[in-house]
């Protein structure tokens, strides 16, 4: 009888320890949500912009640049996203207008992502990105 209880307790322990939330991927926390970030960009009139990124499961995405003080859409740009070939924590954004940007993940929680943003391959190659914080909107 004691062996039966010991077996059941062992099974329960295995079940609960294998179902922890410690194992996740960047995609699970990133994809399907909107993320807001200040990339220190300005309009042609020097109005500050906030960027909102959306990452879809099919590896397409959109960046909406919004004028900070009045929430008016300034520009919307489509991109393909994929992981860097050699750096697993680097996301490559390949824009429809042939620009390529990089996001180097530093720390991620379900609602916040700290990273370095590189506006072009030259900045990425030289390690001259800006430190940014992405906040999940929805």
Descriptive overview:
The protein is of the alpha+beta class. The protein has helices at 2-18, 26-30, 121-126, and strands spanning 34-42, 48-55, 60-67, 73-83, 90-95, 100-109, 112-118, 130-136. The chain has an 8-stranded antiparallel beta barrel. β6 (100-109) and β7 (112-118) form a beta hairpin.
List descriptors:
20% helix; 3 helices; 138 residues; 8-stranded antiparallel barrel; alpha+beta
SSE layout and pairing:
Blueprint: H1 2-18, H2 26-30, E1 34-42, E2 48-55, E3 60-67, E4 73-83, E5 90-95, E6 100-109, E7 112-118, H3 121-126, E8 130-136
Mean pLDDT rating? 88
Q: Count the strands?
A: 8
Put simply, the count of helices is 3
Broad shape: elongated
Radius of gyration: 20 Å
| Helix content estimate | 10-25%
What is the N-to-C succession of helices and strands? HHEEEEEEEHE
Low-pLDDT windows of residues: none
**Strands side by side in the biggest sheet:** 1-2-3-4-5-6-7-8
Largest sheet: 8 strands, antiparallel, barrel
Which structural class fits the helix and strand makeup? Answer: alpha+beta
Provide the β-strand percentage band.
over 45%
